[in-house]
Design a protein that fits this description.
By secondary structure, the protein is α+β, with helices and mostly antiparallel strands. The protein contains 9 helices and 18 strands. The chain starts with a strand and ends with a helix.
Length: about 375
């Protein structure tokens, strides 16, 4: 039963959707890192439900750091953040606890935990647990930003409505990411926001839900980070991204579109620019052989439609072992993709920081040996 990820900085999440609190513990952070609690809270605001395109469950989501920080700086001991739950409607789930919700973890959780799991609101499987992930990711984002490494995500596609893609020009990409970091609805083109919002509202009115694709970019990550094969940079990043509920696909660079081209069309030619090695295109998304090449890391993450919908569905009753009809009540998101962008940014930051620390340790050892 493992709820921890990370090798150099471990991240452990805990709590349930309708329990008293949820939280996260980061272990391995060096001492002396300044922590901006206002930034942590601001990142949490991006994840909050807002308006008709989100659930009507509204939590304060105030992060409380209870260990690992003293007088504004990390102490080097485990850093734990608690977030209280205060707006639970647990009775919504009592009537349907034996009827397994389609495309949820109800059945698999029941098998794994022998029926002892907290079923209310999905329990530990709920997207609610991404709130502490965002708090932890905010710390990683701060550390990376201090080193000039920045991360941004936007809704690339939502139920057939597309946003502009990230720019290939580095300066313009920097501008786009800076804008996204303060955007209320994370898109590049404002027209896409209107069309996507309308699409989500149509699904909500019909008692249904929609999904989409998030495009992310990591800029200014130095070359040389990652490993070949099992701990490739793609492998580590994908591991973190697939830990987000509802993520069903991860691709780098052109991703599955590579299948439409020949090698001569998509190979990234190498060149020098101001004495630095670059690639003239970035079809591989900044990674070769599992290792960063210094170009922007570009990733697409597919988020499925929210499985909690208000339409009648076929299911089974685990108690009677009979087929039944199910209508889910309660408060649910017609789409989570606009709230998921900050979650993607957060886990990307945790993954990149973990890999970056490994590279720093390797370089420090090599430099020490040279000095000897």
């Amino acid at each position: 039963m493992k709820n921890t990820i990370g090798r150099h900085i471990s991240c452990t999440i805990f709590g349930e959707s309708h329990g008293s609190a949820i939280g996260v513990t980061l272990d391995g952070l060096p001492a002396g890192i300044a922590i901006d609690e206002q930034f942590i809270a601001a990142q949490g605001e991006k994840r909050k439900a807002k308006g008709r395109i989100s659930t009507q469950r509204h939590e304060a989501d105030i992060p409380h750091i209870i260990s690992g920080v003293f007088e504004g700086y990390t102490t080097g001991t485990p850093l734990t953040i608690l977030i209280q739950n205060s707006d639970q409607h647990s009775a919504d789930y009592e009537k349907t606890k034996n009827r397994l919700r389609p495309s949820h973890a109800d059945y698999t959780a029941d098998v794994k935990y022998l029926g002892y799991q907290d079923y209310r609101g999905g329990g530990h499987f709920s997207g609610r647990i991404t709130a502490p992930l965002v708090a932890a990711g905010a710390i990683a984002i701060q550390i990376l930003s201090d080193m000039g490494i920045h991360i941004g995500s936007h809704i690339m596609k939502c139920h057939g409505v597309s946003d502009d893609a990230f720019a290939s020009d580095i300066d313009l990409l920097n501008t786009q990411i800076a804008k996204l970091q303060t955007a209320a609805f994370p898109v590049i083109n404002e027209n896409a926001q209107r069309e996507m919002t309308a699409e989500i509202e149509r699904a909500a009115a019909d008692g249904d839900s929609v999904g989409g694709i998030i495009e992310s970019a990591v800029i200014n990550l130095p070359a040389g980070i990652g490993e070949p094969f099992f701990d490739s940079l793609e492998s580590i990043i994908a591991h973190y991204l697939y830990s987000i509920p509802a993520v069903k696909g991860v691709a780098f660079g052109l991703g599955f579109r590579f299948s439409d081209y020949t090698g001569s069309e998509v190979n990234d030619a190498l060149a020098y620019k101001d004495g630095v090695v670059i690639t003239e295109t970035n079809n591989n998304g900044g990674i070769n052989g599992g290792i960063s090449n210094g170009m922007p890391i570009v990733i697409q993450t597919c988020v499925k439609p929210t499985p909690s919908i208000y339409k009648e569905q076929d299911t089974i009753n685990k108690q009677t072992k009979q087929a039944e009809k199910l209508i889910i009540n309660g408060r649910h998101d017609p789409a989570i993709i606009h709230r998921a962008c900050v979650v993607v940014d957060s886990v990307l930051a945790l993954a990149i920081l973990d890999c970056y620390m490994e590279r720093c340790a390797s370089l420090a050892l090599q430099n020490h040996r040279k000095e000897d």
